[in-house]
Amino acid sequence: MEALLLDPANADTRVEFGMAEAEIAQRTQWRASAEVFRAIDATLREAAAHPEVFIDAAMLRGDAVEFAERAAAADLSVRLNIAEATVRSHGRVASTLRERLPLLWAEFSEGEIHTQNAREAAAIVAELPPESWVTFENQILDASRTLAPARFRTRAHAIAEKLRCATIAERRLAAEAGRGTWTELDRDGMGWLHAYLPAEKLAMVGARLDTLAFGLFTETDETRTMTQLRADVLTDLVIGGGTGTGTQSNVGVTVALTVPVLSLLGHDDRPAVLEGVGPIDLDTARRLCATAPTFTRLLTDPISGTVLHMDAHQYRPSAALRRWLAIQQVTCDFPGCGRRAAQCDLDHTTAWAEGGLTTADNLSYRCRKHHTMKHQTKWRVERPPGSPRAVWTSPTGHRRNADPPPF
To answer: Is this structure's pTM higher than 0.90?
Structure first.
């Protein structure tokens, strides 16, 4: 075999062998995806059928199934290192395909259908009336085996369009409920702003940005490109700034900027940390410290840093302590949760009623979902003495440290 692989005359054989290996590996991956989806769906179904596994007997009431499923999804999320929303999405794919597109589900389970095609089929059939499921499956089955995801998506949507009962106006109304914006951090101190909007409003936003940007672009001393100007105009419209549009004043946004004092003075090169973003270059930090009114500037001692204290026997934390913890923790401390601290509850890890103190060591920011889950299910969280992070224990006994701060 080794001689076969090394012999130049057998290049065709080696290429064919590599092709076959890639095909086998790809189908194995698709089959494994289907198995993951199936196992997640089965686990969530068990949680709904037996909520007592995830909830204390004293808490079993009308909403027990909802909290049991929530606790199970969080457990799977921690074990699999994926988001809870992804856990639920995987489970829905398996449940939807098994119930509505059984032939496609069977082939997906055998590794014959691309994972993305299976997900797309599940998402589309979820919006179709029951009487159209068989017709839809029959018309997309061959395409799901043979088309790449982008082509399959176009084909499947075209078929589904003929089978829908709801009018375009009705579907638009339902889709509009999902409108929103979200941010995504990138490298080098940059990031993305995404918006999901009704098409006509998106067109108006685009036209507005183009008009304002072009007005600046035509000025004789303007050096920015149209793309850069659109970004600057958008920033100016939302938070105010110096693009010259004159359309908005600064809004009441406050972001913490932590700078080592020696770095600020030019005697050290340790980076500054911008809340919600992470390390930024010192030139930017110095400029913000000097000019930006919307930043809370925190200078840290080069040796000991800044430490805040308060009366540990007072239930409500001071505003200073809340602010300090938000800067230190950045996000909800449940593993994998990215909800910003500013949008979370400040929770006593050891409950106040059980002797827990109002101190930095016993307080953590937790989003409302995970805060509620801690109280309503068998999920437990503790802060071992000397540990820098809390430890979460799932209802099935899986232990996981809270994620460290990202910066």
So the answer is: no
